[in-house]
Design goal:
The chain is about 80% helix and about 0% strand. The two termini are about 20 Å apart. By secondary structure, the protein is mostly helical.
C-alpha cells in the first residue's frame, strides 16, 4: 500500500497530461454550436442585404462599431491585467505560493536528512524528486516554453515512478538496518545486564528484559 500511494503521488504531477480536457459530449455540443453559428451568420448576412440603405441598417452599423470598440477595450484590459503567463497577479500568487511551500518543505527535509540521516538514500531521493517538480513549475512560471510532447510526459512519468520505487526500497532497507542494529545493541545490553546481575535480582532482570523485548 505504501508503494502504491507514494508512486501515485509521484506520478500525479503529470497524470493530467494523459487525460483530454473535454469529453465527447462537450466536443459534440461544440460542433453543433459552430454549425448553428455558421447558419446564423448566413441568415444575418441576408438580412443585412435586405436592410441596405435603410435607417435601421445605419443604426446597426453604429451599434456594431460601438460593440467592436468596447470588445477591443475589454481585450486590452484583460491583456494588461496578465502577469507573466497568468491571467492575473492573484492567479500567479496562488500557484507560486503553493509551489513555494512544497519547495521550502523539500529543501528543509533534504537538509535535515543530510544532518540526521546521512545514510538514508531513500529520503534524499524523495526530497530531490520534489525539488525537481518545483523547479519544473518555477521554470514554467517565469519562463514560458512550448509544452513537452506526450511521449516526453510518458518518459517523465515512468522515471518518476521508478525513482519513487527506489526511494521506498532504500527507506525500507534503511529502517530494517536500523531495527537490526538496535536489536543487536539490546542483545549486548541484555548480556551485560545478566552478567552483572546478582543472583537474587535475576528474576527481576529477566522480567525487565522481557518487557523491553515485547515493547513494540
Amino acid at each position: 500500500m505504501t508503494y502504491i500511494v507514494l508512486i501515485f503521488c509521484a506520478t500525479s504531477f503529470y497524470l493530467h497530461k494523459f487525460i483530454e480536457p473535454y469529453g465527447e459530449d462537450i466536443l459534440l455540443a461544440e460542433k453543433k454550436y459552430e454549425e448553428a453559428k455558421r447558419r446564423n451568420t448566413i441568415a444575418l448576412n441576408k438580412v443585412k442585404k435586405l436592410a441596405l440603405g435603410t435607417q435601421e441598417y445605419e443604426n446597426y452599423k453604429i451599434a456594431n462599431s460601438d460593440k467592436k470598440e468596447a470588445h477591443s477595450l475589454f481585450v486590452k484590459k484583460i491583456e494588461n491585467n496578465k502577469f507573466l503567463v497568468f491571467s492575473s497577479f492573484q492567479h500567479f500568487l496562488e500557484r507560486f505560493g503553493l509551489i513555494s511551500c512544497v519547495f521550502f518543505y523539500a529543501i528543509y527535509n533534504l537538509i535535515k536528512s543530510f544532518m540526521r540521516e546521512r545514510f538514508n538514500v531513500g529520503a534524499k531521493l524523495v526530497h530531490t524528486f520534489m525539488l525537481s517538480v518545483c523547479f519544473n513549475y518555477f521554470f514554467w512560471i517565469f519562463q514560458s516554453f512550448q509544452d513537452l510532447t506526450k511521449a516526453s510526459y510518458v518518459f517523465v512519468t515512468i522515471l518518476s515512478a521508478t525513482l519513487m520505487f527506489l526511494a521506498i526500497h532504500f527507506i525500507t532497507k534503511y529502517k530494517q538496518d536500523r531495527i537490526y542494529k538496535l536489536r543487536m545493541q539490546m542483545y549486548d545490553i541484555a548480556k551485560v545486564a545478566l552478567r552483572n546481575s546478582r543472583p537474587e535480582k535475576l528474576d527481576e532482570t529477566f522480567k525487565i528484559l522481557k518487557e523491553i523485548a515485547n515493547d513494540k
